Each structure stands twice: as C-alpha cells, then as structure tokens.
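Project standup — Tuesday

K.O.: blocked on the structure for the chain from last sprint. Re-posting the sequence here as requested.
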Amino acid sequence: MASVHLTERQSETEDYKVAAASSDGIVVNQHFGRADTFYIYEAAGAGGYRFLETRTVTPVCDGGNHDEEKLRSNIEQFKDCRYLIASRIGGSAANRLEQFGVMPMELPGIMEESLDKVAIYEKLQHLF
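H.V.: unblocked you, prediction finished:
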C-alpha cells in the first residue's frame, strides 16, 4: 500500500494595511463616525505589524446625523487599507466601507490584541 505524506500548506499572503480608530494609539476606542484620528499599520503575511502613520479626518457623525459627502471623503482616505477597526461602526458606514473594498470590524480593546484578531481572521481567509 502506498503511503500518503501530508504536508503543511504555506499560505503566502501579501502585506496589507489596517486602519484603527483610536484616541491614543494604545487602544481601539473610537466609534468610526466620531473618530478624527486613525492609526495605520502594515501587517506582514508572516505575522507582526509595523506602524506607518496617523491619518486625520473630519468626524461624520453629528448627533446621529451623517453627512454623506464627508462619509465618502473619509472612506476614500482608507481605500488602501484592507481592514478598518473601530469600537463601533454603524451599518450604513460599514456597507460603504465594504463598497470601497475595506472590511469593517468592531474590535474594541488593546491595539495589539485587536490587530492580532485581524491577523487570525486574515489567516482563516486563506486556509482553504
């Protein structure tokens, strides 16, 4: 009987960017529509993150009302990012992010832990 050798499949994923809504760069603690500062990280396919820059935008949420033009303009600031993480993201904004090819995720907490969750999600996308 022939033997079968199972080998571990190495998934080579490209580097990607993650935008994180944070007031201090330590925790993901901002609602997408109320945030004015986003921390941009580059995630390597092999693991780990590298801080790239901060980006500032004009918050679009004004007491429950949203300026559609500001929303579009803000989202365009992140079209080079694969993921955008925040403590909260409204359904309308999440849909618009997806239309621009950005995956919205609600991952409040310590920045490093939230980024690790994105990495796990990304690895799962390439598992099969």
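K.O.: great, moving the ticket to review. The two ends are 28 Å apart (CA to CA). The first strand starts at residue 16 and ends at 21.
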